[in-house]
Amino acid sequence: DLYRKVFVFRKDPNDAYVVLMAKLEQPLQNFTVCLRSYTDLTRPHSLFSYATKAQDNEILLFKPKPGEYRFYVGGNFVTFRIPEGHRDWEHVCASWESATGIAGFWFNGKPWPRKGLQKGYTVGAEAAILLGQEQDAFGGGFDVYNSFSGELADVYLWDTELSPDKMRAAYQSLRLPPAILAWKSLSYEVKGDVVVKPRLRE
């Protein structure tokens, strides 16, 4: 249970990452991924990387520069532009639905205009799921200049598209439905220079 805790990625650039173990019974037709990050990086960095042997960017949350997020499904991506913040915690949720190809994006509890992405696609189940690095090969192929440094928390992955009230609940750290990956019952393995510490502030 990592409630009120964070992963601190201490170095920039670094070769550290966290492997997340998920029990995926079947491929994903829908999903929602949420996380909270805190960094002063201005270069590109990866937050959440879900790779299969067939596709290294099966699901990817990537920040190419301040004020912009890229959300990948099956190797294709859409871009969501956000107001440049005051270097504070940023909470993002990205959702996707195969039937409509609708990609949703919530930033600090507010929805952004939805976009179209990979209609009819299926996300593979045999996955390597990493925090802090972008995979260019299954479980590896890192570029240190896409690595994350800073603090990560509240990582979740659901095999459904969350309702708007649950999206807001994720932002407020309230009760959430059972998840494939849940911060309060996370199965993970730290590789390299990552430290678990209490969260300093909300």
TrEMBL record:
Keyword DNA-binding in record: no
Subcellular location(s) of the protein: Secreted
Coiled coil: none
GO biological process, one term: innate immune response
Cited PROSITE patterns: PTX_1 (PS00289), PTX_2 (PS51828)
Protein origin, superkingdom: Eukaryota
GO cellular component: extracellular space
Main location: secreted
GO molecular function ontology, one term from the record: metal ion binding
Cofactor: Ca(2+)
Cysteine-cysteine disulfides: C34-C93
Annotated family: Belongs to the pentraxin family.
Subunit: Homopentamer. Pentaxin (or pentraxin) have a discoid arrangement of 5 non-covalently bound subunits.
Annotated protein name in UniProt: Pentraxin family member
Organism whose genome encodes this protein: Balaeniceps rex
Gene: Apcs_0
